[in-house]
Amino acid sequence: MGFGRYELVGLLAIGGMAEVFRARTRLGGITRPCVIKRVLPAYSSNRQFVSMFIDEARITVGLTHDNIVRLLDFGQVDGAYFMAIEYVDGVDLVDLLRAARARGEGVPPLAAAWIARSIARGLQAAHLARDHRGRHLGVVHRDVSPHNVFVSWDGAVKIGDFGIAAARNKLSRTTAGTVMGKFGYMSPEQASGEGVDARTDVWATGVVLWEMLVGARLFATDSPVDTVARVMGLKIPPPSSSRPDIPRALEAACLAALTRPLEHRTPSAEALAHALDDVLGAVDGAALLAMTLANLGLVPRRQQAPRVRGRGSAAAEATAPRPGARTMPTRPLPGTHDDEVRRLVAAMAKDPSLAAIADLGDRYAALGLRAEASSAIRTAAYHYAHRGLLVQAVCTAHALRPLVDHETFSTELERLARLRDQTAAGLEEALRHVEHCIFADAVADADAGSVDDQTLEPTFVPPKAPLLAMLSTQDFVKLAQLARVERRSAGTHVLVEGQRGDALFAVGRGQLVVHTQRLGTTDADEGERAYLAALGEGDFFGELSFLTRSLRTATVEAASEVVLLQIDRDVVDLLASAEAAFRVHLVDFYKERVAELVLAKNPIIGALPAEVRRGIVSVAEVRKHRRGDVIVREGDAADELFVLLAGEAEVTRSAADYTVFINKLQPGQLFGEMALLGSSVRTATVRAMGNVEVLGVRRQDVEAALATDTRVRDLLEAAMRVRAAESEARLRESVRIFEGV
């Protein structure tokens, strides 16, 4: 099942706030498995929750550590918000503990120490995280439990689900007394609703360690009230009272983490990790843990379908078949005398991607290795284009500009355009022009080892890139030549609310967030931001204000280092004036974006499936009006609805022997739908206040779409009642002011 740029392969779990799916994507250009956590509709429609969700995700995406499950991507598809999370090939700690208890034993002490040490290392990295300005974020996980600890088959351990982690600047907005997390793993201060810090995570890690050693739950009971009472007052028995073989130093580290007075508890996750390192000494913890998994009968379930867990479980990353190992080509890559090249090669071996190959090309260019640079850049760009990732392809290809002449660069862009048909033969033909095919070998090896073909459907076709997929080869080349590619660091404001929209953008790499300032605040008041959306690879943004020539309605900020494709207004105007076909594609692009950005927000049309909204707009017509033209006349039959594309329009109604002003419409606003959908005549007049453009959608096209979903009729009636009440209130107020009543 398609979900934006992801294919949802199977449902893994349903939790209180999200559905969890095994998925695959071409994030970074390489087909790879991942896990999608899709927020349930009740929360996706809650603006406050969405703002908090995006705020948390922008912090979490910066947490990179070997013991933290990576957040790969976040955003929304058709109104549903999601996180794409690193796939951990193994089991979660719940499975490991269950297997150990089935044998009537705990986890081997040193294996338990390795797991707890790894959790502590990941937590310490999160606790010390800073933003792009170097400010300490104060991240606290607040939900450390076996459900959120993942163990790979080779013994690596990662802590996941920082979804409810909060930075200090957000804690002040958390409802007083709210308790987050699982009762059996809460610290005493957390259970009592007090403020928490990193020592809360130390306590929870201590609980997890105690339960691994003993093979039983420490505080949990069938009653949340009783569980909290035990957390607050139970005398904690030493693990050695159940297992005399536990090393004294390991028991001491566990009990120090479980000290109730904060001033006496292990002061940090780092201190806990150091204590556990002393216990482990020279022991290879990963090898020991891998052996423990095998001894407990936990082996890769290559042929088993994913299980669906019940509500409340968030431990889904580790239930799917293991993908094959990724390898690098046997031939050595050039330039390994350079430290940065060695670092990039090591990173590519660990996490292959087309972006990593492009970065290697950039480094070769800096070293003066032009042939090697050209090879790496071409290989990455060709594969991006072949996979339909056209924004990434163009951004990557721009690195060739200083290496080749203008004619050669144009030829390269033509190849990218031809690769949009995504045929294997086309890719092979393009790669014949690459001098060093070692990079193509790296892509082939990475892709071959990144998915399990027996469990993944081959029919998924990712959505086409907006605008770039529509253009002729000639227009594609011209646009790609004239566009700009820029890198922006984390924290940079790419667009600023209230500024003119003189460019549109697309994301070649990285993550951005969209926010607006709450009423009465300034840009300095970051705690008062309302987060609206998130943007990732291939997404366009800024197009509505660009195409309507209106002011930006929100700020777009880089959440990580980003690579952007920037298309300025003079470029679009130049191409539109010279190419009739380009103007047609620009209108089609606008229609597509209207369906996504305008109709999706309408309380009636937005309830329709995304493909139905797109269908409505695809048959719409663009019309131009001059100042004073009547677009909709009061009393006329309602046979169309409209979207204002450019300019402004006023809405008026007749009252007695004078005209009453009701509202002023801005670009992007929908109007005329209430009379149309209610099968009535127009109740107001809409007149152009200057030169305007509107998109008109016919009644029969709308009605055909509405008939596809029975929910719309109820929404329609409710929305009509609200809109009618608002209009009558405005009319009464206008009459009162006009008549001086």
Please, could you describe this protein's structure?
By secondary structure, the protein is of the alpha+beta class. The chain has five domains: about 1-85, Phosphorylase Kinase, domain 1, CATH 3.30.200.20; about 90-295, Transferase(Phosphotransferase), domain 1, CATH 1.10.510.10; about 340-450, no CATH class; about 475-590, Jelly Rolls (Sandwich), CATH 2.60.120; about 600-740, Sandwich (Jelly Rolls), CATH 2.60.120. It is built from 26 helices and 25 strands. The chain has a six-stranded antiparallel beta sheet. The chain has a four-stranded antiparallel beta sheet with strand order 10-17-12-15. Strand 3 (about 20-25) and strand 4 form a beta hairpin. The radius of gyration is 29 Å and the shape is globular.
Highlighted features:
741 residues, four-stranded antiparallel β-sheet, Phosphorylase Kinase, domain 1, 26 helices
